[in-house]
């Protein structure tokens, strides 16, 4: 209740964007084993957090702790960066519709319900940064959005913004069978590629026209939202997040990326193990899905837990993703553990939950590791991150505690139970919510 | 000379009497053996002779006879049982040609036998076997009011005849929106209609059974494959396994089972934690949904702790991989049980949900589910805690045959 009032006052003073305003006095977490991702694990560590950022991290006896710091004993626990999910579908996404296979004008954030209980479950799983995307039933299903799981009243509250305050995101594309269908959708793989090339060529011409117009209104082409979206891809402002499974589809993505010089992250890559060297040679990052069996469709029938290990060995950058609802955000740590089961290194697998994903979203200067100056996004665990018995105890975003397993309201979303499926409780201030505490 | 011949003949007869050796005799030595028939044994041995378990005990108490093949493992468990799956029916490719788990032509078809649809060479059977699953209860999936029969098979054997343990294990029914039709004019379209149709069918079966036994020979009704099966359900010979997840649907299922005195197995049971007293009072076992089932739709209120709550209430509970319509095409019961061990159940209670408790609920505990002399030689071997994500299943033995040694 007190926290809620505080949140309301801060909200009123600074506007919704500042609800997650950081604590005034520094916080220091002492005694935990810290996995910073960059550098070795630190036993008996100290993590100092101030104004939403990491102020210091290191061994307890080596870090200077501010005199006014509030100490939190984390002895016996583990602290690692908040998890970065490069591919997530929570929030009731509604991206491109069935009218066309390529819809770059769609912004996924125009469809998101920030009170969807999926956001609460994601926090319970230790996720702090997400790439929320439209689905894979289109060659291009719209613009994705990168979010932080801050306290939020509106979707704008979770945006990650650039220096000009524009929300950051990528572009979702797909090939293979998901995006093939009846007309106007493509019926074959060649047609899929042809349709994509056609649109990117159009976008190149649109961009060139704008450039030659040099601001002359008489010569400027009419604004075209779809073309504007694609031009952002051509300009490298939007990374393409490309659903692709079969080995030949993966190679097709690399071919198109080369032709149009767009930046791409390969997603799912069920058969990535077959073309690992080609992927590594193209320096294409891979966001890998780990699911409990192969199959469900022909192009995923040779999926294996080994994909992460094979790609890592080949030298490719590897991250994991939940693809929530395909896998549950609450068990995201498990993806890394199963990859380790199949031969991936422990360090590689932990980076694949954090820093590697941050790199794939162009956010690695802000998130993904516990380093001084980065956002104070971290999770506190009661055991090894790769153990089935380990629980996420707390999830912190920009210095604010956003999930606390000891709070029954948060526990409901972590464990499930009656009412857990509803929209998360709106952030009612200053009066008791009918459901009570 | 005659004497020598008879010796040879006698020797030959002796060999023949022993029978052809179809499986090597196997001994498994484990640092920890969970027999599920008593406390775990540290440094133990399981002897498997002629496909059956011959002895289980401490290493210093069980002598391994000469000629036995010896396998070693950190942890040994009974071969795992997946209490409800559709592997062998819902194939890996998810194309019409390999999907035999659900016939959509009518809402009530109990005559569909699982043995006529099971594909023992389906790739996903081998996939789950690699994690230590040696037995699956599989067959017709949830999705129609009465979708057909289920069967219990070993995950080894090239034909259904070689794999099957129980031909008709249950009749599978669904009392959930999954079985409702949205097309205008199609039934069932509501919860009320689902119950009315189920009750109507069982009443028809009652009448049929009565007439078949009491009517004059020329007035006996024609044989009905469908009603014959329902008669066996009414006779409590075959259980009715009903998939229901919302509390209101579970309540309806209990009402139905009570009215017709049916042997009920509750399947799915997402919100069963709201009706513990009612389920307990009805004496109904639960085959609980996969722990990691997606928390959407009728499963939006699922809890990781339901297995623990059912167990605490004294309700028999088994875990399952369930039916998956997309990706992954099957879950793995081992992983679903693992998460219950992290959410309220002890290690051994969680292991019981995929071994002895599953066997009891399915009525096959005389044969499988624990490591006891006389039971089938089904074992799973691990290089660490079987529930840990980073452990591997390093050996699988079915009917005394080592069927997998590739770490998975």
* Name of the level-1 CATH class of the largest domain in chain A: Alpha Beta
CATH topology of the largest domain in chain B: TIM Barrel
Percentage of residues assigned to helices of chain A: 25-40%
Estimated radius of gyration of chain B: 23 Å
Tally of discrete structural domains of chain B: 2
CATH topology of the largest domain in chain A: TIM Barrel
What strand line-up does the widest sheet of chain B have? Answer: 5-6-7-8-9-10-11-12
Key descriptive features of the protein:
heterodimer; A: 437 residues; alpha/beta; Urease, subunit C, domain 1; TIM Barrel; eight-stranded mixed sheet; six-stranded mixed sheet; globular; disordered N terminus; disordered C terminus; B: 408 residues; seven-stranded mixed sheet; 11 helices; 15 strands
Detailed description of the structure:
- The complex is a heterodimer of chains A (437) and B (408).
- Chain A is globular and about 65 Å long.
- Residues 1-22 and 425-437 of chain A have low confidence and may be disordered.
- Chain A has helices spanning 2-14, 117-124, 189-213, 225-234, 247-260, 276-281, 307-314, 332-341, 346-351, 355-360, 408-415; strands spanning 27-34, 42-50, 53-59, 70-73, 78-81, 83-88, 127-132, 140-143, 145-148, 171-174, 240-244, 264-268, 286-289, 318-321, 378-381, 392-397, 400-404.
- By secondary structure, chain A is α/β, with parallel strands linked by helices.
- Chain A is built from 11 helices and 17 strands.
- In chain A, the strands form 3 sheets. In chain A, strands 1, 2, 3, 4, 5, 15, 16 and 17 form an 8-stranded mixed beta sheet that branches. A 6-stranded mixed beta sheet of chain A has the order 8-10-11-12-13-14.
- With 408 residues, chain B is an alpha/beta fold.
- Chain B folds into 2 domains: 20-77 and 370-408, Roll (Urease, subunit C, domain 1), CATH 2.30.40; 80-368, TIM Barrel (Alpha-Beta Barrel).
- Helix content of chain B is 27%, strand content 24%.
- Chain B contains 11 helices and 15 strands.
- Chain B has an 8-stranded mixed beta sheet, with helices on both faces.
- In chain B, strand 5, helix 2 and strand 6 (133-139) form a beta-alpha-beta unit.
